[in-house]
Structures are given as structure tokens and as C-alpha cells.
């Protein structure tokens, strides 16, 4: 990874006495696609607005390219924002919208004209110069908003849930579009969303947030495969989180049966939380399973079947391409690599951090 | 059959509403001084009106008060609305209902209370007091007209302008003002109309020796109605009607875009 471009140091922010961000520390590398992911009210948008300069933190500093920009107004920052509701200037044409920032910087007319052309080509809307923003679809408006931001050649592009208002198909298309744009422009994207699929698809680096705290950060694979706490496991995809006992290194007792695993260093006979993804549960014949259970619910989901399997009074969620009808007695096996062990929160503070939605 | 009845009802309604004004306009062209008899068409009363110095000075007073009151109340009202963007919903609707009270309040109460206030503050009656009174009762009309624009405004548009490098004032001028403009224009027209045809509040705040058109008409009527008054009233009616039509045209045109 490259060098730090933006560093947030000990950022705290509250509104009307309600704490939104509490001592947040975050480094954003140059030329990466970083996603702030979390449920609404987790502080992700506030974090983005602090970077953009629309909010001032109560405590802490924002460092941009080695300089403290905490109190710098947004019009003096070398970054541009794509807003959730597009925020296009409706009384101007598409070309005037895109030219807005360049005119303020006193660029020449020919430079502005070239830039508009280049930007419209980049977002696949060539020839839309003289249209009114209101005559465009939501997806097209969003592309214009992106074009308007990138012609200013910012070092960082901030995107605040830019796909939130689009329909599913359009959203998926735009995800690839944004990824391509990032590669072409070679700048840093900071993206805010509550959609875990969007985050997994596009990001180099995901920052999972809840209640003003960073829960975990890392690559999409790491976040998905090795969630550090119950909140992350629950928020990113479906998962089974089971209170269990770590017998010793590489051996854990789940629902009364002993499973081999690969985790070490949790101590002996210690309570832990185990995360098993529904697609990692193997259903076999009862006599071959480490655990035994009964299928209680079955739903066809297209790619796979989703099943509820009851094991000793506890329901487990299972995804499988093989059909086991309701009432079938099944055995359950899990590969040691697919068992993710997490510490049980001990202190109240930790409890608050990992409190689920 | 139902349609015929509907038309008839509407026709009757319009006749009841406009018969007095039509009578007035017709009489303003009547060459006979009698109210009961048509003596032929004349413009005599209009001509007399134009050469009447008392009317001319009252007209100048009315227009200068209306123009000044409109400009000042439009600025105050618009700025207040903008300032209220930052308030939470509860406080905002509270302030809006307070500012609406003078509008529903009986004019005579507003007039008398303003008169008492000016006496108490030792502001001598005349041009200043009428102007202050008109600004006071115009502000709610401006706010009522600008506020819906504020509510529908996308605040991110202003932030987007800042984000693209605009200084706050330039961003305001380029993004907020164009959004509010139709509301400001219709608010100003409304204020001008209200100011132009106000009688009661003006009457209580004007003091002696200072006349606007409406108070002049009232004084004349006390002395016995002259046909010139019909002419003057007809002109005021037409001007106010035109302005009101403009007020309703402005937002209608914007919606079409």
C-alpha cells in the first residue's frame, strides 16, 4: 500500500449532547478505494463530512498530505464530494454544472470546454452538454455529479451513499463503473455506504463502523472471512454466532460436540464466540456428522437453498446447493478453517462497541 | 342538467362578488353625478383626478411607502427565512406560527397597538410611522411566500458549491438565491399589494395632515361622495388586481419548467 494521505487523529463529535464519534483514529492510504460501512447512525457520514470540511470535530485533528486541515473551509480543500442526492444545480445546464468549479479557478474557456468533453466521455454521457439536469434519470444525474467533481482533479473523491437512490440493476452497473473510474483516475476514493455487498464488491479497504466506533478494518476478504466481533460477523453477510467453549488451542466445543479449529491463544476452557458462515456448514448423513440435527425450514433462493437446522434447541442457518426437505435428520460437519473464534466481550466498554443493531 | 346548475351557481357567485366593483367602475364613466341615472360616457372624472393636487400628493405618498415597505420587508423576511434553515423543525414551526399571528389579527387591533407603541416611543406620526407599520404587517406575507421554497431546498446544493471551491457568499448567490427567487418575487408583490390598499392600519398610524390614497378617499367620502372617487377606486382596483394576478402567475410559471 502507498503512503498515508489522510489521517484522522482522536476525532470526537457530538450533536445535541449525543456522541456520534468517540476518539476515532483512521488512516487512509493514497490511491486506495476505502469504504466506510455501517448501519445508519453509526457515524460514517459524519466522518466523511469531517473529511470534506462540512463539519468541524469537537476534538482531534484531520491531517491531509502532511498538513493540518481541521479548520480549513471546504472550498479550500483539495477534495471533492459526490452527494447522496446528487445536489446538481438545477437552474444550470449539464455543461454549466461541470464548469462551475473550473470557472471559480479562472481556467480558460478552451480548457474548460476540453475538460467538460473529457469528463462526459469518462462517465459515458457524451453529447449531454446542453441538457437540463432535471431532464436526466437518477443514474445519469449521479454520473453528472461525479463528472462535476472529478474535473477539478481532486486528490480524493468523497462519495456519500451515491447509489442509494438507484434501483438494483443500475446500482450494480454503477459499482463496476465506479471501480473502473477509480482505476482510470488513479485517485483515492472514500465511499460511504450501509450496503455490505457494495462495500465487498468495490473496496480495497473496508472500515466497519458502529455507534461511533471502528469495529474492524481490513481487506474485503479479511472482513468477511475473519470478523473480529459479533457485530461485524452479523453485519457482513449472514452468519451463525454461537457461544462456545475453547477447550485448548485448536479445539473448540460447539453445542456439546468437539470441533477441530485453527485458532490459538484463547486459553483453556474459556468461553468464546464462534462464527460459522451458512455456506460453510456441510450437511451429511446423521451417522457421519459431528453434530446431529433436523431440518425445520427450507427456502429456495436461486443460487442455493436456505435451510434452518435445529441442533439441541438452537437454530443454525445453512446455505447449500443440495436439497434436504423439512424433517430430514442430518449430520453437521465444519472444516477447521471455516471456524472463526472471537473473544467474548468482557468489559462494559467492549460490550458497547460490539453491541449489535 | 347538473352541469347547467353548476354553471348557474358559479355565475351567481361571481355576480355577487363582483357586482359592487362593476357598479363602481361603470359609475366612474357616468357623466351624470346622480348614482341612479346613466348620463352618457365620460372621462371627465379621470381627467379631474389627474389635475387634483391632493390626489397627486396622496399617490406619491402611497407609492413611496409601498415601494420602501416592500423592499425593506422583503429583505427582512427573506433573511429571517434563511436564518431559520439552521433551526430544528419544532422551533421553526413555532416561529412561523408567531409570525403568522399579525396576519390573522384584526387590522384594527394591529393599527391601534402600533399607534400606541409609536406614541409610547415618542415617534411623531407621519411618513415614518406608516412606513414602520407597513413593514411590520408585510414581513409575515414575505415569509409565508419564501418559507415553502426554503423547505423544498436541497441544502446539499449549497454545500456542493462550497465543495467545488466557491466562497460562501458566491455559493449563496449562485445556488440558494436562484432557488428562493420565485418565492421572493411573489412575496414582494404580495407585500406591495397589501401596502397599496391598506386603510385601517394606515389610518391609525398616519397622524394628521398626511394622506395616502385610501385615507384620502375615506376623508372625501365623509364630505359626500364625488364621482372622482369612483375613478380613483377603479384605478386602485385594477392595479391591485393586476399585481395579484402577477403573484399567482410567478409560482405557476416556475412549476411548468
The tally of beta strands of chain B, per DSSP, is: 0
The gross shape of chain B turns out to be globular
> What proportion of the residues of chain B form beta strands (DSSP E)?
under 5%
Treating each run of at least 4 consecutive H or I residues as one helix, how many helices of chain A? 9
Q: Which regions of chain B have little confidence, pLDDT < 50, spanning 5+ residues?
A: 253-257
Instruction: Spell out the helices and strands of chain B N to C.
Output: HHHHHHHHHHH
Structural category of chain B: mainly alpha
User: Could you state the oligomeric state of the chains shown?
Assistant: heterodimer
**Major β-sheet profile of chain B:** none
Largest sheet of chain A: 6 strands, mixed
State the end-to-end distance of chain A: 33 Å
Number of strands of chain A: 20
Average per-residue pLDDT of chain B, rounded, comes to: 88
Q: Rounded to an integer, what's the Rg of chain B over CA atoms?
A: 22 Å
Q: For the largest sheet of chain A, list the strands in their spatial order.
A: 6-7-8-3-9-10
Can you describe this structure?
The complex is a heterodimer of chains A (357) and B (257). Chain A has 357 residues and is an alpha+beta fold. Chain A has helices spanning 44-52, 94-104, 109-122, 138-150, 168-185, 196-202, 220-225, 230-235, 348-354, and strands at 4-15, 18-29, 33-37, 59-64, 67-68, 79-82, 156-160, 188-193, 205-210, 213-218, 240-248, 251-254, 257-260, 270-276, 281-284, 291-300, 305-311, 314-320, 329-334, 340-343. In chain A, the strands form 4 sheets. Chain A has a 6-stranded mixed sheet with strand order 6-7-8-3-9-10, sandwiched between helices. In chain A, strands 13-12-11-14-20 form a 5-stranded antiparallel sheet. A 5-stranded antiparallel sheet of chain A has the order 15-19-16-17-18, with no helix packed on it. The longest helix of chain B has 31 residues, at 53-83. Mean pLDDT of chain B is 88; it is low at 253-257. Chains A and B meet through helix 2 and helix 4 of A and helix 7 and helix 8 of B.
Amino acid at each position: 500500500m502507498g503512503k498515508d494521505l489522510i489521517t484522522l487523529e482522536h476525532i470526537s463529535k457530538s450533536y445535541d449532547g449525543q456522541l456520534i464519534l468517540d476518539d476515532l483514529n483512521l488512516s487512509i492510504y493514497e490511491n486506495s478505494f476505502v469504504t466506510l460501512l455501517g448501519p445508519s447512525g453509526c457515524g460514517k457520514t459524519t466522518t466523511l463530512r469531517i473529511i470534506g470540511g462540512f463539519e468541524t470535530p469537537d476534538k482531534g485533528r484531520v491531517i491531509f498530505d502532511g498538513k493540518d486541515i481541521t479548520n480549513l473551509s471546504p472550498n479550500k480543500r483539495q477534495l471533492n464530494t459526490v452527494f447522496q442526492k446528487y445536489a446538481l444545480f438545477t437552474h444550470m445546464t449539464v455543461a454549466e454544472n461541470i464548469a462551475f468549479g473550473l470557472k471559480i479557478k479562472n481556467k480558460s474557456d478552451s480548457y474548460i470546454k476540453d475538460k467538460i468533453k473529457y469528463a462526459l466521455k469518462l462517465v459515458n454521457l457524451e453529447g449531454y452538454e446542453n441538457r437540463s439536469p432535471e431532464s436526466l434519470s437518477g443514474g445519469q444525474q449521479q454520473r453528472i455529479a461525479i463528472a462535476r467533481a472529478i474535473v477539478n482533479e481532486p486528490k480524493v473523491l468523497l462519495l456519500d451513499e451515491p447509489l442509494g437512490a438507484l434501483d438494483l440493476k443500475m446500482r450494480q452497473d454503477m459499482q463496476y463503473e465506479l471501480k473502473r473510474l477509480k482505476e482510470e483516475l488513479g485517485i483515492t476514493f472514500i465511499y460511504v455506504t450501509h450496503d455490505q455487498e457494495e462495500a465487498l464488491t468495490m473496496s480495497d479497504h473496508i472500515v466497519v463502523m458502529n455507534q461511533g466506533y471502528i469495529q474492524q478494518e481490513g481487506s474485503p476478504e479479511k472482513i468477511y472471512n475473519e470478523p473480529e466481533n459479533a457485530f461485524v460477523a452479523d453485519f457482513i453477510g449472514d452468519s451463525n454466532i454461537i457461544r462456545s467453549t475453547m477447550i485448548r488451542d485448536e479445539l473448540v466445543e460447539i453445542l456439546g460436540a468437539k470441533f477441530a479449529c485453527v485458532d490459538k491463544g484463547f486459553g483453556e476452557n474459556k468461553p468464546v464466540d464462534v462464527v460459522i458462515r451458512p455456506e460453510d456448514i456441510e450437511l451429511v448423513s446423521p451417522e457421519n456428522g459431528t453434530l446431529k440435527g433436523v431440518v425445520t425450514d427450507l427456502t429456495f433462493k436461486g443460487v442455493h437453498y436456505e435451510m434452518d437446522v435445529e441442533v439441541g434447541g438452537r437454530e443454525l442457518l445453512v446455505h447449500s446447493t443440495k436439497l434436504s426437505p423439512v424433517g430430514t435428520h442430518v449430520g453437521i460437519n465444519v472444516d477447521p478453517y471455516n471456524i472463526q473464534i472471537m473473544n467474548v466481550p468482557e468489559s462494559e466498554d467492549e460490550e458497547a462497541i460490539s453491541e449489535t443493531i | 342538467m347538473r352541469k347547467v346548475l353548476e354553471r348557474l351557481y358559479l355565475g351567481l357567485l361571481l355576480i355577487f362578488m363582483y357586482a359592487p366593483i362593476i357598479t363602481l367602475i361603470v359609475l366612474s364613466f357616468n357623466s351624470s353625478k346622480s348614482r341612479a341615472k346613466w348620463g352618457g360616457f365620460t372621462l371627465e372624472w379621470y381627467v379631474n383626478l389627474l389635475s387634483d393636487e391632493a390626489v397627486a400628493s396622496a399617490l406619491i405618498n402611497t407609492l413611496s411607502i409601498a415601494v420602501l415597505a416592500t423592499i425593506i420587508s422583503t429583505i427582512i423576511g427573506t433573511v429571517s427565512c434563511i436564518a431559520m434553515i439552521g433551526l430544528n423543525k419544532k422551533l421553526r414551526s413555532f416561529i412561523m406560527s408567531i409570525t403568522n399571528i399579525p396576519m390573522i389579527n384584526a387590522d384594527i387591533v394591529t393599527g391601534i397597538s402600533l399607534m400606541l407603541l409609536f406614541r409610547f416611543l415618542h415617534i411623531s406620526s407621519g411618513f415614518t410611522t406608516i412606513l414602520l407599520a407597513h413593514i411590520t404587517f408585510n414581513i409575515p406575507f414575505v415569509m409565508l411566500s419564501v418559507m415553502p421554497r426554503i423547505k423544498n431546498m436541497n441544502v446539499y446544493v449549497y454545500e456542493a458549491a462550497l465543495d467545488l471551491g466557491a466562497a460562501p457568499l458566491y455559493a449563496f448567490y449562485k445556488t440558494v438565491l436562484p432557488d428562493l427567487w420565485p418565492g421572493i418575487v411573489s412575496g414582494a408583490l404580495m407585500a406591495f399589494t397589501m401596502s397599496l390598499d391598506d386603510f385601517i392600519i394606515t389610518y391609525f398610524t398616519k397622524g394628521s395632515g398626511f394622506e395616502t390614497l385610501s385615507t384620502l378617499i375615506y376623508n372625501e367620502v365623509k364630505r359626500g361622495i364625488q364621482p372622482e372617487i369612483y375613478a380613483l377606486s377603479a384605478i386602485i382596483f385594477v392595479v391591485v388586481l393586476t399585481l395579484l394576478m402577477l403573484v399567482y402567475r410567478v409560482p405557476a410559471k416556475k412549476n411548468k419548467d
